[in-house]
Amino acid sequence: MKAKNNDKVRQAIYRFVKYLIASVALAVCIFFGFLKTSAIEVNKILDKTVEYDLIQARQVELTEKMDTLYFYASLLNTDPTINHVLMQNTLSNRKLQFSNVVSDVSDRDFRLYKRLSQQMNVFLNIKDSIKVSISEEELVRTDLLRCISDNRNIKRRLSTGGITIER
Question: Model pTM greater than 0.70?
Answer without folding.
Answer: no
